[in-house]
Amino acid sequence: MLKIIFKILFKLQGWTLYQPSPPEAKNCIMVAAPHTSNWDFVFAISALDQLHLSPRFTIKKEFNVFLLGSMIQNLGAIWIDRNKAKKLGMTDFMKSLFDDNQTENLVIVVTPEATRSKVVQWKTGFYFAALKSRVPICLAFMDYEKKLTGVGMCFMPSGDIDKDMGIIMDYYKSITPKFPENFVTDERYTH
Fold first, then answer.
1. 147-164 pLDDT, tens per residue?
2. Is 43 helix (H, G, I), strand (E, B) or coil?
3. Is 139 helix (H, G, I), strand (E, B) or coil?
4. In which domain, by residue range, is 67 found?
5. Are the CB atoms for 164 and 127 separated by under 8 Å?
6. Into how many domains does the chain fold?
């Protein structure tokens, strides 16, 4: 039900899908950026669903409560027991999702800014999870100025985090978020 509502909102707001998605986007860790508004989630989930990419995202199990839990589950939630995840570590936990996956199509969406507020250093666990899992990193975007969203590029992490994160920062620096004052690329990797 929520996917239908999200799709209607997507259309009403005048968003356009960037197509086609790279073929690697069917099995990857998907970076979703910039992330400056709650609307980003609505439009990103709708766009990725319309692109037939079956997005999944991690969320703490405490949200898995009557009614709300089933709605979130239908959007692609992967419930996290934070106590167990802490023991394993999120990087290894994400790797275990790919190891346990019985199909070839698993798209785990991450927001490395980890908040809608302005941050100067992005979380890099997704990078190491992709490296360990031997899956590509794909870059999903939402450009509010152009009302364009989709998956722009994918690449296999090389193990050189400075170089690879530099690619990511270069990609996102030209994307216009809903609230530009809340978005900066990570200066550690900006060249």
1. 999 999 999 999 999 999
2. helix
3. strand
4. 2-182
5. yes
6. 1
